[in-house]
Amino acid sequence: MNVANIARRLVAGELHYALGRFESVRRGYSALRRLSPRSRVRAPAGPPIALPPLPATLFPGQTTDRALADLRRDSIALGFDLPWSMVEEMVEFATHSPLQRRLRDDRMFHRHDVHKGRLEDGSPAVMGIVPDPLDCPAVRRVCRDPMLMECAGAFLGFPASKIIPRLFWSFVTDATDDERRQLGQTIDWHYDVHDFHFCSAQFYLTDVGPGAGEHALVRGSHHGKSLRMLLGSANARDEELFTHFARDRILVVEGPAGTGFIEDTSCYHRATPPVSRERLMLQLWIS
Predict the structure, then answer these.
(1) What is the CATH number of the domain that holds 282?
(2) Residue 222 is part of which domain span?
(3) For residues 226 and 64, what is the distance between their CA atoms, to the nearest angstrom?
(4) Who's near 221: CB < 8 A, 6+ residues apart?
(5) Cross-strand partners of 215
(6) How confident is the model at residue 70 (pLDDT cuts 50, 70, 90)?
(7) Burial track 132-145 (b if 16+ CB lie within 10 A, e otherwise)
(8) 3-class secondary structure, 251
(9) 53 belongs to a structural domain
(10) What is the pLDDT of residues 92-132, one digit of tens each?
């Protein structure tokens, strides 16, 4: 068990890391946020300020009730697929943007610098992270989508106040598992604890089938974790995970470019390393 790591994060002031892993805390936090004035929109003093209206949704076929039911049952709500024009704009932006190998890495490169999964100096290219995704209008548009935000807010129990976009390539490379981990690729089963309550929205911007970087999750594993899982590492080995949860709960998400979904990332999930073609993904951390 990794109680020492939890204690270290507490000392660093990361209270959410210790508490956000408990479902009862997430529910309690939602209740407090609903009661808190901070979660309500207040009219400013003085003359009214004209704000731009929210755009029409990109997901007219989705409903809040269906998405919420799916999230509560399966940890995932599908059906948030982007129109092709939005996909094209983000692919074009990410293709020509400078990239980082990991977050807060000063070393920059471009997609065309990657040859056979390696950079010019021979180091593995595992991921290419766009440092400023909000410079892309299409990314900003997705972050403001009213249906997406309504569904996320219904799940959280309060209007989302933090939306952190990540736009990144996952390359085909012969990097070892340890190299992938060192560079931040989450190839191990794990659950997230990045706030007191949270979810994510994820969008494939390239076609994703077998061998193309499929996202995998254990349906319904956002609840029912053992005490060892909650007090220990957020990562889990196969033998531990599938002693507790049935293997038939695994869902591997495949789909054409534009495929999108909301996920309760307190469930166990992982990235499958691409072996046949690179993947581009937009991910929103919402809390």
Answers:
(1) 2.60.120.620
(2) 3-35+60-286
(3) 30
(4) 75, 191, 245, 249, 267, 268
(5) 253, 271
(6) very high
(7) ebeebebbeebbeb
(8) strand
(9) no
(10) 999 999 999 987 777 899 999 999 999 999 999 999 999 99
Residue type for 226, please? Answer: S
Q: Distances in Å between the alpha carbon of 31 and those of 25, 189, 267?
A: 10, 29, 21
As beta bridge partners, residue 253 has: 215
Q: Is residue 51 part of a domain?
A: no
Q: What is the pLDDT of residue 257?
A: 98
pLDDT digits (tens, 9 = 90+) for 142-196: 999 999 999 999 999 999 989 999 999 999 999 999 999 999 999 999 999 988 8
Helix (H) or strand (E) holding 165: strand 163-170
Cα–Cα distance, 156 to 170 (Å, whole number): 29
State CA 220 to chain mean position distance.
Answer: 17
Residue closest to 203 by CA, chosen among 257, 272, 135: 257
Q: Comparing C-alpha atoms, which of 262, 263, 276 is closest to residue 206? A: 276
* Cβ-contact 194, 285 below 8 angstroms: yes
> Is 101:129 a contact under the CB 8 Å cutoff?
yes
Instruction: Please answer whether residues 265 and 155 qualify as being in contact, where contact means their C-beta atoms are separated by less than 8 angstroms.
Output: no
Residue 233 lies in a domain: yes
Mean pLDDT, the chain, whole residue set: 89
> Look-up: residue for tokens 């249906």?
147
Closest by CA to 222, choosing from 70, 88, 11, 32, is: 70
Task: Give me the amino acid identity at 102.
Answer: R
> Which 8-state DSSP code applies to residue 37?
G
Query: What is the rounded distance in angstroms from the CA atom of residue 100 to the CA atom of residue 109?
Result: 7
Contacts of 271 (CB under 8 A, 6+ apart): 170, 185, 186, 187, 213, 215, 216
CA distances from 12 to 9, 26, 29 (A): 5, 21, 21
How many structural domains are present in the chain? 1
Q: Does the pLDDT at position 39 exceed 60?
A: no
